Amino acid sequence: MRTAVLKGVIDMKYIYTQANCPKCESLKSGLIKQGILFKERPAERLQNRTDQIDVDGFIKLQMQNLTLPVEVDILTADDPVDESWDA
To answer: Which pTM was predicted?
Structure first.
């Protein structure tokens, strides 16, 4: 199988949160302190996905054992850095 590793820059960070979620509040304050721009979306959107970002967030939510918050980074890809063949 051929794989390519892309070098990219985070274009936008989306976070899915809900009210009264200490981990969500901690993530938001940490991102603000680091000067990282983000768009916040309600976690309810993950149930009724309306765009690819929601789909990616839903997949990540399942990988996190349904634990919030969920972060989705949208990358602006540059040129491939490494291409290789896997056996």
So the answer is: 0.77
